[in-house]
Amino acid sequence: MEPINLPEQLEIVALVRVGYPQEIPPPRPRRSAGEAMHREKFDRTRLRNVETFIQTYGRGWGRL
Fold first, then answer.
1. The whole model's pTM is what?
2. What is the pLDDT of residues 13-51, one digit of tens each?
3. What angle do CA 56, 57, 59 make, to 5 degrees?
4. Hey, which end of the chain has fewer CB within 10 Å, N or C?
5. Would you call 37 helix, strand, or coil by DSSP?
6. Measured distance CA(40)–CA(24) in Å, rounded
7. pLDDT per residue over 2-13, tens digit each?
8. What is the spatial distance between Cα 15 and Cα 18, in angstroms, rounded to a whole number?
9. What's the rounded Cα separation, in Å, for the pair 32 and 59?
10. Which residues contact residue 6 at a Cβ distance below 8 angstroms, ignoring those fewer than 6 apart?
């Protein structure tokens, strides 16, 4: 790989960022433990559709 002069026999499997961000973004919204945990078996009645999840929790998850 030309930018970092990596030999062709090697492959990057992980990257670790080092340093400080220019700005600290606000915390991402999270589901409550009651929404995320299922006891004994998966409870499909608590399953929400993807659109509802994105509308509720999706903002802020676009950043990495």
1. 0.29
2. 888 888 888 888 888 777 777 766 767 777 777 666 667
3. 100
4. C
5. coil
6. 39
7. 677 878 888 888
8. 10
9. 16
10. 12
